[in-house]
Design brief:
mainly alpha; two-stranded antiparallel sheet; 9 helices
Amino acid sequence: MDPSFVLLVLLGIFALIVLLITIGEWFEDIESDMGSQSNPNSQVQLAPQVGVLHRLFNKAISGEPVSQGLNGVIGATLFTILWWGLKWHPVLAIAIAAAITTLFHMSLATTAHVGRITSANVFGQPLYYDVIITQLPLIASHAFILTSALIAVSYLFYNVFFATITIGPETSITLGQYLGYPIAIPLLGLLLGITAGAIGSSTGDVHYGAEREFQHAPYGEGVPMGLHGYITVKAEVGYRMSMDVAYFCAKYGGPLTGFTYGMIILLDNLRLFIGNIMNNVVVNVAIGATILVILIIFNRYLERWARNKFGPYS
């Protein structure tokens, strides 16, 4: 077998990992927006206290990194039991593990929303049952896709590390020397989930908290203390629900957040991949430093371009 075939196999697996992470993070951001679990959640929670009643789902019981890390470790643990312990096919095990994890996620989302809204009843905030009924299926569907992606990537990273390809009668190549991690699948799910939540809580917030939640405020001024809690509650037709927020974020926030996580996985593992092929740690460090410098320069250029085009900031 031609050694170049092994390289193509590695690149194909690598591309699949990046694709899965990108799609999973895309839906992670929309899922958090759907339930007001991201940083702007504090504004949704504060709104009734300043007299702003709303119809937004409010499920945050922790930050996104903790919540998605929990989904990742539960899903990956269930997958390991089904795949490794019961010898199920990986595809079926991923689907069933993600489905069970989604049910767990829905139960936490329901109790968190009901608890938070009823605690705000003293300020006149009603509990809308139609909000629960209409938003939960959307939260579940987005969480299912994210959890499936986290489990699949954890499986690929783990399995590739221990996989070997025979290229001759007496020659075989261990793929783990180029790609993958010798880390238990549940722990990989935890780490990938925490990272997904952290990226969604930072990159995705810009397209939800600063644009959708405070549309009545001038662009670029941030949220002055005097406006805290005074969120925009009216949508295009009637009062806003979380699905209106998700519809808005699906255009920019979700794709950009997915792109962010995908680029992190792509660039960091590409750095390791090239260095491992050349069997030189110095190459790893040099490529990493080069990528970092390029990103800093590009970020500065983008900031200056945005300020000149959309400024001045108040």
